[in-house]
C-alpha cells in the first residue's frame, strides 16, 4: 500500500505530460500529414493545373476536380487549364498522401493543421477557397491578367513561371 501511495506522491512533483489544449499546442512531427493546402507560386498564380491526377490516385475517392481553360485576361495558373472546382471530402480522406505524391506541380500538400471538426457532413467538404493558401507578399490574387503567350508552356517547364 505504501509503495502505491509513494508512486502517487512522487508523480505530484513530476512535470505533467499533458498540455492545456487548445490554448497550448504541441508541434507536429516533421512528416505529419494534416489538412491539405493548395499552393501558389511566388507571383500568386495557383500551382494546380486541374489535371485530376490527385483524384485518380486517391484510394478513398475523396477528391473532386473540375478544370477550366485559362486565358491571358483571366489566368489562374500557368499552362492551359486550372481547377475551377476543387473539393476534398475530409470524412473520406485517410491522410495517406497519395494525392501529394501524384501531383505533377506540387500543388497539393498535406500540411500541419489537424484541427478538423464539423457539426454537419456538408462542412466536411473543403472547397478551393478553403484549401488555397493566401497570396504571398509581392504576389497578386487570381485571376491575373498576363502577357499574351507567356504561360502557355508545357508542364515540366513550369517549375518557376516567375522567372
Ligand atoms: S490524403 Fe489520401 S485519402 Fe486523403 S485526399 Fe489525398 S489521396 Fe485521398
Ligand atoms: S492538385 Fe495537382 S494533381 Fe491535383 S488537379 Fe491540381 S495539379 Fe493535378
Automatic annotation (TrEMBL):
<feature type="domain" description="4Fe-4S ferredoxin-type">
    <location>
        <begin position="84"/>
        <end position="113"/>
    </location>
</feature>
<keyword id="KW-0874">Quinone</keyword>
<dbReference type="Pfam" id="PF12838">
    <property type="entry name" value="Fer4_7"/>
</dbReference>
<keyword id="KW-0408">Iron</keyword>
<dbReference type="GO" id="GO:0005886">
    <property type="term" value="C:plasma membrane"/>
</dbReference>
<feature type="binding site">
    <location>
        <position position="96"/>
    </location>
    <ligand>
        <name>[4Fe-4S] cluster 2</name>
    </ligand>
</feature>
<keyword id="KW-0472">Membrane</keyword>
<comment type="function">
    <text>NDH-1 shuttles electrons from NADH, via FMN and iron-sulfur (Fe-S) centers, to quinones in the respiratory chain. The immediate electron acceptor for the enzyme in this species is believed to be ubiquinone. Couples the redox reaction to proton translocation (for every two electrons transferred, four hydrogen ions are translocated across the cytoplasmic membrane), and thus conserves the redox energy in a proton gradient.</text>
</comment>
<dbReference type="GO" id="GO:0009060">
    <property type="term" value="P:aerobic respiration"/>
</dbReference>
<keyword id="KW-0520">NAD</keyword>
<keyword id="KW-0004">4Fe-4S</keyword>
<comment type="similarity">
    <text>Belongs to the complex I 23 kDa subunit family.</text>
</comment>
<dbReference type="InterPro" id="IPR017900">
    <property type="entry name" value="4Fe4S_Fe_S_CS"/>
</dbReference>
<keyword id="KW-0830">Ubiquinone</keyword>
<comment type="subunit">
    <text>NDH-1 is composed of 14 different subunits. Subunits NuoA, H, J, K, L, M, N constitute the membrane sector of the complex.</text>
</comment>
<feature type="binding site">
    <location>
        <position position="93"/>
    </location>
    <ligand>
        <name>[4Fe-4S] cluster 2</name>
    </ligand>
</feature>
<feature type="binding site">
    <location>
        <position position="103"/>
    </location>
    <ligand>
        <name>[4Fe-4S] cluster 1</name>
    </ligand>
</feature>
<feature type="binding site">
    <location>
        <position position="48"/>
    </location>
    <ligand>
        <name>[4Fe-4S] cluster 1</name>
    </ligand>
</feature>
<feature type="binding site">
    <location>
        <position position="51"/>
    </location>
    <ligand>
        <name>[4Fe-4S] cluster 1</name>
    </ligand>
</feature>
<feature type="domain" description="4Fe-4S ferredoxin-type">
    <location>
        <begin position="39"/>
        <end position="68"/>
    </location>
</feature>
<keyword id="KW-1278">Translocase</keyword>
<keyword id="KW-1003">Cell membrane</keyword>
<feature type="binding site">
    <location>
        <position position="99"/>
    </location>
    <ligand>
        <name>[4Fe-4S] cluster 2</name>
    </ligand>
</feature>
<dbReference type="GO" id="GO:0050136">
    <property type="term" value="F:NADH dehydrogenase (quinone) (non-electrogenic) activity"/>
</dbReference>
<dbReference type="GO" id="GO:0005506">
    <property type="term" value="F:iron ion binding"/>
</dbReference>
<dbReference type="GO" id="GO:0048038">
    <property type="term" value="F:quinone binding"/>
</dbReference>
<keyword id="KW-0411">Iron-sulfur</keyword>
<dbReference type="GO" id="GO:0051539">
    <property type="term" value="F:4 iron, 4 sulfur cluster binding"/>
</dbReference>
<protein>
    <recommendedName>
        <fullName>NADH-quinone oxidoreductase subunit I</fullName>
        <ecNumber>7.1.1.-</ecNumber>
    </recommendedName>
</protein>
<feature type="region of interest" description="Disordered">
    <location>
        <begin position="137"/>
        <end position="163"/>
    </location>
</feature>
<feature type="binding site">
    <location>
        <position position="54"/>
    </location>
    <ligand>
        <name>[4Fe-4S] cluster 1</name>
    </ligand>
</feature>
<feature type="binding site">
    <location>
        <position position="58"/>
    </location>
    <ligand>
        <name>[4Fe-4S] cluster 2</name>
    </ligand>
</feature>
<keyword id="KW-0479">Metal-binding</keyword>
<dbReference type="InterPro" id="IPR010226">
    <property type="entry name" value="NADH_quinone_OxRdtase_chainI"/>
</dbReference>
<dbReference type="InterPro" id="IPR017896">
    <property type="entry name" value="4Fe4S_Fe-S-bd"/>
</dbReference>
